[in-house]
């Protein structure tokens, strides 16, 4: 069963980047398509090879214009029962947005494509349509100069898959085994693997620089001064005096102290740089997926007749169809005979409700609950 992903972007750069990311991630060129509009009032498509075609949007008929072909493309994609989604996306192209579609064969692949496209900024198409004020109903509304600069992401199944019930989906593509043959169904479960890596979280850089600081000291200095004094003397000369009665000279020198400055270095402080290691525990939370195998008991004509009689008695008067309720009968009997075997209805009803609404987004539990319960009781009673 095919699954289709539709994303609307406000500019071609994001759309092209998303498309390139899909191709680089393993999606084939046949699975990816880019439809785009321009601010000149024309629309075009870019196929997976990158070629672009342009055609005017002034045609009055959808059958002959490019806008019409875009609308027919989205009508085929979403089905003809409700034109609202097709009109929204064709209107987005008409107004200059860029629509990227991805068609895959499995739901995990379309989910992977959605994760890749989400990185490039898509937003809600419903909010976009509300800004147009309902203009998307024709697919040819007047295009404003600036255009609408938003994008949307929608994951949808193709028309056939959306219209099929749970029971038809489970039966589609089933393998018929001959007598004596067997088939193994692998149960796959993801495991969470947690590792570690070093990252830079900052640090310290220490600089050393020279700083000059003025200092002053008081020093006492000594100086010598020679002085000469003449005194009058009147006395007879002695023999010693006569011995020195000759030419001679006497020198007497003056001395003084002056300041001598020397510097010596001393270590007055030290800065120690080092690292210490601390450890802490951190809780890592995530989700892992696994597959489950549901075993459905295939009922024959007797079971089908039984459920039809119950439908005619309880639901036919309300205008419903048996085809709408048949998956609910089958779902109840399947869950009772396989996954929830041996457990009571009251115990498992919340799980059944959540699972049903996940599998059948267009079918409410409150409407189908009694049919599911009847299928459950058919097996357990």
From TrEMBL:
PANTHER family in UniProt: STRESS RESPONSE PROTEIN YSNF
Region span, Disordered: 34-62, 154-177
The organism of origin for this protein: Massilia eurypsychrophila
Residues in DUF2382 domain copies: 186-295
Low complexity bias: start-end ranges: 37-62, 154-176
Highest taxon of source: Bacteria
Pfam families: DUF2382 (PF09557)
Listed name of the protein: DUF2382 domain-containing protein
Family matches, as InterPro entries: DUF2382, Stress_Response_Assoc
């Amino acid at each position: 069963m095919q699954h289709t992903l539709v994303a609307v972007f406000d500019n071609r750069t994001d759309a092209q980047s998303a498309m390139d990311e899909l191709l680089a991630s393993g999606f084939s060129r046949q699975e990816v398509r880019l439809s785009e509009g321009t601010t000149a009032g024309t629309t075009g498509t870019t196929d997976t090879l990158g070629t672009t075609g342009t055609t005017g949007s002034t045609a009055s008929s959808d059958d002959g214009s490019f806008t019409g072909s875009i609308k027919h493309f989205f009508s085929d994609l979403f089905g003809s029962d409700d034109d609202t989604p097709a009109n929204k996306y064709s209107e987005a192209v008409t107004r200059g947005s860029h629509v990227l579609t991805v068609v895959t064969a499995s739901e995990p692949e379309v989910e992977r494509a959605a994760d890749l496209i989400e990185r490039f900024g898509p937003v809600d198409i419903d909010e976009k349509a509300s800004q147009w004020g309902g203009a998307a109903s024709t697919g040819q509304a007047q295009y404003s100069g600036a255009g609408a600069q938003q994008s949307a992401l929608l994951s949808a199944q193709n028309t056939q898959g959306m219209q099929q019930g749970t029971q038809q989906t489970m039966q589609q593509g089933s393998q018929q085994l001959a007598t004596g043959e067997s088939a193994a169904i692998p149960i796959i479960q993801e495991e969470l693997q947690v590792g570690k890596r070093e990252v830079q979280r900052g640090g310290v850089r220490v600089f050393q620089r020279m700083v000059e600081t003025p200092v002053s000291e008081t020093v006492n200095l000594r100086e010598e001064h020679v002085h000469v004094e003449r005194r009058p003397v009147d006395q007879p000369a002695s023999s010693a005096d006569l011995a020195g009665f000759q030419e001679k000279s006497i020198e007497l020198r003056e001395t003084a102290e002056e300041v001598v400055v020397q510097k010596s270095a001393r270590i007055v402080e030290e800065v120690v740089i080092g690292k210490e290691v601390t450890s802490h525990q951190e809780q890592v939370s995530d989700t892992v997926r696994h597959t489950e195998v549901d075993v459905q008991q295939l009922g024959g004509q007797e079971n089908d007749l039984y459920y039809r009689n119950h439908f005619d008695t309880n639901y036919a008067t309300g205008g419903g169809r048996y085809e709408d309720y048949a998956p609910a009968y089958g779902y109840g009997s399947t869950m009772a005979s396989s996954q929830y075997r041996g457990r009571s209805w009251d115990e498992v009803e919340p799980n059944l409700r959540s699972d049903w609404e996940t599998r059948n987004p267009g079918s409410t539990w409150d409407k189908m609950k009694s049919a599911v319960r009847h299928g459950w009781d058919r097996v357990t009673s």
